[in-house]
């Protein structure tokens, strides 16, 4: 059957994204055919498009979606036709009307969570889940630093960290974004365009510093993150929206108080089916409890994915964005 998908044949700017007719056949062993009702937009998509994270070309794009199972391949036990499902992670191909996908990457979407919310929350929500509950387990009373606090991961992380009893310090680029972060749990917001982050963090924490810095920005915030940590604090570098983190000497960690540094990725925290289901359950529970609200701030028609990428890279988007087939 013929459907449409966004594909790219060369790396480059948003203009390389093409709306193409594709044939989607029957699912093979271990696969299902999934009809998307909503597709997620994430910053990592721009890394695939530009070639920062190389992929074989031509390629589909997109790592997240929610929809309904249309057909089930041989050996698939935990899903059936008609199931509402969502996913985050590979293989690429989320920007599509219909796709084939390994069944073990899908989780059932609770009835109380819409497809749009499901597509908006899986990658950013599972990322937040592993960051706050696995990489560094946030404890009541912790001071935590969350960069890009008004972004997709940022808004979820601020709410979740606050619900866990942390004091949340966020950074944003504008007063408008700062207000959004405060409305989602940030106790303090630093405008990094107007003041140096690390000295302000010291001031806000009585000189102590934060237990953990969650940094998805990269190059522009790296040293500020390290300089904001308390002794034995953890620097979690999970993205590079401003460019790759610079090379640094290990002694820099020693000199700042025997710090920990990690560069995690979602795939390693969800590689085992049991780990994926456990993280997804924690995410769905915290959303269904109302402690974390997932807000879809922008929607675009899937065929207009190039414009969505332009707006994302120009920092015009806030919170979560979904593409509608």
UniProtKB/TrEMBL annotation:
Protein keywords: NADP, Oxidoreductase
PANTHER family hit by this protein: QUINONE OXIDOREDUCTASE PIG3-RELATED, QUINONE OXIDOREDUCTASE-RELATED
Species the sequence originates in: Oryzomicrobium terrae
InterPro entries: ADH-like_C (IPR013149), ADH-like_N (IPR013154), ER (IPR020843), GroES-like_sf (IPR011032), NAD(P)-bd_dom_sf (IPR036291), QOR-like (IPR047618), Quin_OxRdtase/zeta-crystal_CS (IPR002364)
UniProt cross-references to SUPFAM superfamilies, sorted A to Z: GroES-like, NAD(P)-binding Rossmann-fold domains
Designated name of the protein: NADPH-quinone reductase
Any one Gene Ontology molecular-function term assigned to this protein's record: mRNA 3'-UTR AU-rich region binding
Pfam families in the cross-refs: ADH_N, ADH_zinc_N
Gene3D superfamilies for the chain: Medium-chain alcohol dehydrogenases, catalytic domain, NAD(P)-binding Rossmann-like Domain
Superkingdom of source: Bacteria
One GO location term (cellular component): cytosol
Enoyl reductase (ER) domain mapped to chain residues: 12-323
């Amino acid at each position: 059957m013929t459907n449409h998908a966004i594909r790219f044949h060369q790396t480059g700017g948003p203009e390389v994204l093409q709306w193409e007719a594709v044939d989607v056949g029957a699912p093979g062993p271990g696969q299902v055919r999934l009809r998307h009702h909503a597709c997620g937009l994430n910053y990592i998509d721009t890394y695939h498009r530009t070639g920062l994270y190389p992929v074989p070309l031509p390629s589909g794009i997109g790592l997240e979606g929610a929809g309904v199972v249309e057909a089930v391949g041989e050996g698939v036990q935990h899903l059936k036709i008609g199931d509402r499902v969502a996913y985050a992670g590979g293989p690429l191909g989320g920007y599509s009307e219909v796709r084939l996908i390994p069944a073990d990457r899908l989780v059932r979407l609770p009835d109380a969570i819409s497809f749009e919310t499901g597509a908006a929350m899986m990658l950013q929500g599972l990322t937040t889940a592993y960051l706050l509950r696995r990489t560094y387990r946030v404890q009541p009373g912790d001071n935590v630093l969350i960069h890009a606090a008004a972004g997709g991961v940022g808004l979820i992380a601020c709410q979740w960290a606050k619900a866990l009893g942390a004091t949340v310090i966020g950074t944003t680029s504008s007063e408008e974004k700062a207000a959004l972060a405060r409305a989602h749990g940030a106790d303090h917001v630093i405008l990094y365009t107007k003041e140096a982050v690390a000295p302000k963090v010291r001031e806000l924490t009585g000189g102590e510093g934060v237990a953990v810095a969650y940094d998805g920005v990269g190059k522009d915030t790296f040293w500020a993150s390290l300089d904001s940590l308390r002794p034995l604090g953890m620097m979690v570098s999970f993205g590079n929206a401003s460019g790759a983190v610079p090379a640094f000497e290990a002694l820099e960690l020693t000199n700042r108080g025997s710090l920990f540094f990690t560069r995690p990725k979602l795939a390693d925290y969800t590689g085992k089916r049991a780990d994926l289901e456990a993280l997804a359950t924690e995410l769905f529970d915290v959303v269904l409890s109302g402690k974390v609200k997932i807000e879809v701030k922008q929607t675009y028609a899937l065929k207009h994915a190039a414009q969505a990428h332009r707006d994302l890279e120009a920092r015009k988007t806030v919170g979560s964005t979904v593409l509608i087939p």
